[in-house]
Amino acid sequence: EFLDRLSATDEDGLHAGRVTFSIAGNDEAAEYFNVLNDGDNSAMLTLKQALPAGVQQFELVIRATDGGTEPGPRSTDCSVTVVFVMTQGDPVFDDNAASVRFVEKEAGMSERFQLPQADDPKNYRCMDDCHTIYYSIVDGNDGDHFAVEPETNVIYLLKPLDRSQQEQYRVVVAASNTPGGTSTLSSSLLTVTIGVREANPRPIFESEFYTAGVLHTDSIHKELVYLAAKHSEGLPIVYSIDQETMKIDESLQTVVEDAFDINSATGVISLNFQPTSVMHGSFDFEVVASDTRGASDRAKVSIYMISTRVR
């Protein structure tokens, strides 16, 4: 197969000005290419054998040598880039999976997320009049909640999402050279996992009410209550006691300020005073689970002083 013509000029006359061409210093290039010296100071670059599949690029050095004998032949080298580009096939994604998260309800309607874009091998080193890549959702969009910008692959919502109804979706986006086109090639398909974020992300206690009992024989640092809260978006939670909500019996007045310790990271409430037999009644208060953004949840706690005779 003929690729392109080569030509050179030499000011010498007769045989000294006759130019021949060859491939210099590249064994790989010599494996695939040949120079056919078939013209007057011109030649044809030819392909010797079929190239491997896919886009191929070779850097050749073409040497033009004259026919001089005194003091000898002279030559000039020219670097040539030879590119073989595919003429058929669909665009392909480097990574066939992506994930995004939309906020539920109206807040998510203004969100936009850039999905990975495909590459078209036919556009290799293309500068103008290149093949346009179009994107479309071809599977998983049964509720018509989602859409993508056809030329940018930006995903957005057509309908508000409701996390209480469904927390995750999965759609498939196809890349094609035709608007709305589909592809059967897995490399041209992008699977997008879509999570639904809460409109009001916050900590949530697993129980609204916690209770415990204290005997006068119990010792300081005994663990009494194990609070448990989860964050709707997995953020860290800090636990605390709201002292302003504390209600007690008069017999507990002397210890109320520092009656309990709470581990801010684990939510474990421990005894911080030495009980006596004259103490009775209960400590009633609220605990708070807070996140780093200031959102919080509350639960009620009652810790009773228990007589050894009625335990």
Output the keywords.
311 residues; mainly beta; Immunoglobulin-like; 3 domains; 4-stranded mixed beta sheet; 22 strands; Cadherin-like_sf; Cadherin; calcium; calcium ion binding; transmembrane
The CATH topology assignment of the largest domain is Immunoglobulin-like
What is the chain-wise order of helices and strands?
Answer: EEHEEEEEEEEEEEEEEEEEEEE
- Shape assignment: elongated
| Proportion of helical residues | under 10%
pLDDT averaged residue by residue? 89
- What's the oligomerization state? single chain
Number of helices: 1
Estimate the strand proportion: 35-45%
CATH architecture type of the largest domain: Sandwich
Most strands sheet:
4 strands, mixed
How many strands appear in the DSSP assignment? 22
Provide the CATH superfamily of the largest domain.
Answer: Cadherins
Number of domains: 3
Architecture overview:
- The strands form seven sheets. Strands 7-13-12-9 form a four-stranded mixed sheet, with no helix packed on it. It has a four-stranded mixed sheet with strand order 15-22-21-18, with no helix packed on it.
- The protein is 2% helix and 44% strand.
- With 311 residues, it is an all-beta fold.
- The chain has one helix at residues 27-32, and strands at 2-7, 20-23, 33-39, 42-47, 56-65, 75-84, 97-103, 113-114, 134-139, 146-148, 154-157, 168-176, 189-197, 203-205, 209-215, 223-226, 229-231, 238-248, 260-262, 268-271, 282-290, 296-306.
- The protein contains one helix and 22 strands.
- The protein has three domains: 2-84, Immunoglobulin-like (Sandwich); 97-197, Sandwich (Immunoglobulin-like), CATH 2.60.40; 203-306, Cadherins (Immunoglobulin-like, Sandwich), CATH 2.60.40.
- A hairpin with a 5-residue loop joins strand 10 and strand 11 (154-157).
- InterPro entries: Cadherin, Cadherin-like_dom, Cadherin-like_sf.
- Its main location: membrane.
- Keywords: Calcium, Membrane, Repeat, Signal, Transmembrane, Transmembrane helix.
